[in-house]
Amino acid sequence: MVSGSRAGRRRGAPDTKGEILAAARVEFGEKGYDRASVRGIAARAGVDAALVHHYFGTKEKLFLAALEIPFDPEAIAARIADGGLSGLGERAARTFLSVWGDPDKRAPLLTLLRSAMSNEAAATMLREFATRMILGRVLAAFDGLPDARLRVEAMVSHLFGLVITRYVLQLEPIASTSDEDVIALVAPVLQAYVDSAIAEQ
């Protein structure tokens, strides 16, 4: 009796989704987002590309699932960028703290951050995520300003420094200082990158 199943396609076994995610992490880590392909990920996982699309829909959604990002990056980028340049520093600080201050979001993010510090593939994935999913949207708010990308990346470096001291190293007193007090300290520094760019126009 001839089977009606399509040759080369493995149906969704209980661990198939996990195998696709594992293959995606390797593929994205080795090749980056642009060069990685759904077909390549499917081949590495030993499944049809159609099964990858069935589970994850799009390459972008697969990328986010592989990273295990516990928030919607478009919504986060919009919270920072929408509203223009005025108050952008405060919105950036407040948004970062709202995400990292949530224990359910912080745990997977800390895992990713620690992995990126010691593993090049994880660092590549985190860099691709930050550049593609968040920085691009925030950069749009800087349209036409001098050294826009450098300024945005300097803001990000401040925010990740805050994350490391507050949530990884847990240095006191910054670790136990209230969000509002931290925002009051950090927001003017972040806003200075914006205001100095406006002044240089």
Automatic annotation (TrEMBL):
GO molecular function: DNA-binding transcription factor activity; transcription cis-regulatory region binding
A Pfam family this chain is assigned to: TetR_C_16
Keywords assigned by UniProt, alphabetized: DNA-binding
Listed InterPro entries: Homeodomain-like_sf, HTH-type_TetR-like_transc_reg, HTH_TetR, Tet_transcr_reg_TetR-rel_C_sf, TetR_C_16
Residues of the DNA-binding region: 37-56
Domain HTH tetR-type: 14-74
PROSITE patterns the record matches: HTH_TETR_2 (PS50977)
UniProt name for this protein: TetR family transcriptional regulator
Lineage: Bacteria, Bacillati, Actinomycetota, Actinomycetes, Jiangellales
